[in-house]
Amino acid sequence: MHNREKGDIYEAKALEFLKEQGYAFLEKNFRSKYGEIDIIVGKDEVTIFVEVKYRKSNRFGSGMDAVDTRKQRRIYLTAMKYIQEKNLKDAEFRFDLISFDREELIWNRNVIWGDSIGF
Predict the structure, then answer these.
(1) Which residues, at least 6 apart from 114, have a Cβ–Cβ distance to it below 8 Å?
(2) Is 41 within 8 Å of 18 (Cβ atoms)?
């Protein structure tokens, strides 16, 4: 199985989990010139940008380790493009990470802060 196929499987699992938690699906694989956001959901008037990572082992670090400052900046800039396109400039938003570390789902909320990446 190729990495993109694995990514699709784990993105689907993450989206199903979020729906079970009461989040409304907004968009999947939103792309801009800066990068891609795997899942965008909403709840209680908050838009949540979700990065999904899968790790078969921790040999190369956890899913959280894979979201370095460079990746965070790309996600942030892509999210700003989404906010601009959807005219959500006054909306609340946050950035979450759902990682599957050896099949265990780990949900980290608020993983990106603008001031921590230079914005």
Answers:
(1) 76
(2) yes
CA dist 108 and 118 (Å) reads: 21
- Tell which residue, 67, 49, 61, 66, has the closest CA to residue 102: 61
DSSP letter for 23, please: P
Q: Which CATH architecture fits 3-117? A: 3-Layer(aba) Sandwich (3.40)
CA distances for 67 relative to 23, 51, 70, 101, 119, angstroms? 23, 9, 8, 14, 17
φ, ψ (nearest 5 deg) of residue 61: 100, 170
**What is the block-wise mean pLDDT of the chain (119 residues), using blocks of 10 residues?**
76 96 97 96 96 74 67 92 92 92 87 63
Q: Where do we find the tokens 């894979």?
A: 66
